């Protein structure tokens, strides 16, 4: 079809004959579809050769990195703009912002070049970016003009900067999180309105019960005489931040009045807040299922499009030739190794017929997402340099001791003893000398492990715990040497350096995590949910940034911090007479202000914790207006009720699976647990005691894939036979690089007893056909 091409998602004509191989432009187009399916991108793009090349360039990692650089640079400008943590002239910050806007415009134009015009202008994200760029330029011009005539203006467009972080295609995870929250708003709104109605009813009751009794607060102000103050205090009571202070005047007057507050707490704090969490959770689950269903449909649709572009007819079915499949995989994953590519081809071309059928082709995007761990076990360098010494009886005894579990237990006891010594007074010379003893023991431990295990395998890319252990010991060495050096140089005394030294010494105790399996499981789980936490971290950052900018514009300069040694009378009222005799000033909260971006973010973090947040709200209300309390209430509703509850509902499902997978199962079951998330490449001769290091727990048990690549040394043997491939000379076996694949096509169904027939899906070693 010469002429105009159609957008992604529509069928494209195939080669002129079923046997005709696809052209290079067809490979690029198919690669674009597969790449979109791999990364769950839903970007409709033009299918002309030029547009496809531009689309590949648009998705290149350098372009994405440059986009993020300018996004974070644009957000960081608030550190240098008034009110600034590091002040810069307006001209410098405005030039930097114009550069960022130029980069955003270029990125948007690039996107417009690969997207059909009708689709581009119907996309709300693109419209938001264009409008934000225009509004920012208008704000820059107006603010600059006012500054030129010495009139202070308001940079209101700074609150719009997170729009770039949210709406560029690279931030689709944050958009999905926002979408999830937006979808829960209709149901939450009714619960929230009912909660407000309940709170107002209790406020009216409090006004009638306590308003005319002449009660006073601790500060001496009238107690519950203003309906708005009552409503605010009762809202704060829902967060428990002012409990039991808020009820003490009434409780002291008559203990029966405590029943009013107890009833309010039960209804609004426990029942309504629980309903909020339940509504958020149910809606999150519902919309998450819809989101996953949509993503799965789009992924399959894109893979079908790619297949239709590359397919040729062989016999009675359409397939993709092996050569085209290889070229496609290399375009989609240019850094893929030849062994990895061969592995994926063997999985896709099960019968090794020279082509890939449609069903197996549709799995390509998922296969490319599977993490592949390549373990190349080589001889220890000492074994190559000094074979007799390394294989001698004393050497083998040392290696056996290091590999034994008792060796780990001994060092666990040493760590606990070291913890006791760290807690003691380090000025005691005995304690100081003991630190060197413990450090020596840790260094000996590392040296013994490096002597026993091959160094490159010990410090492999995936050996997180070995790196962690070694870095902690290096930190302890640096801390001890630095501490000794600082103490010997009596003329030099830096408290900050000494604090760092003490922290590094305490970090040594973290090595206990390495020794206890359940600790490792917990830490590994936390690492695995890192991407999810980063997504919600980006969500929180957006909200924090918007509220911080608004807070700086409204509350800047209202509160000032004075050094604790200051004798100025203003230090007692945080530089503002309106705070005299207030809880804000008495609590010395002067540093909690909106005078720069860093201070604003710290203050918002304190508000998220909730404790004493009403004192902060009251303080800023005193220096501005009582209506400013709405700012703090709005922040609490958005962050604590909506976002924090969304995070709480998303984490259990992501943390539950690793514990279910790793506990109460045998090591062999764990090794062959159906897993779609990881492939293990290992020498075939590792089966035996060393094979336990390859056991892994996976959070997405869907499929069992174990790939064993034989490096086939002449002396290689296993636990079930004399040779990995008996009957073949070693050099032939090494040349062929025999690949043993044990692949369960589908996850086995559960039996009546609830146990999964793992042996049916993943045969035991004795059942392998060697």
Task: Give a written overview of the molecule.
- 61% of the residues lie in helices and 4% in strands.
- It has 770 residues and is mainly alpha-helical.
- The strands form two sheets. The protein has a four-stranded mixed β-sheet, covered by helices on one side. It has a three-stranded antiparallel β-sheet with strand order 1-2-3.
- A hairpin with a 2-residue loop joins strand 1 and strand 2.
- The chain is globular, with a radius of gyration of 33 Å.
- The relative contact order is 0.07.
What distinguishing features does this structure have?
770 residues; mainly alpha; three-stranded antiparallel beta sheet; 7 strands; globular; disordered N terminus; disordered C terminus
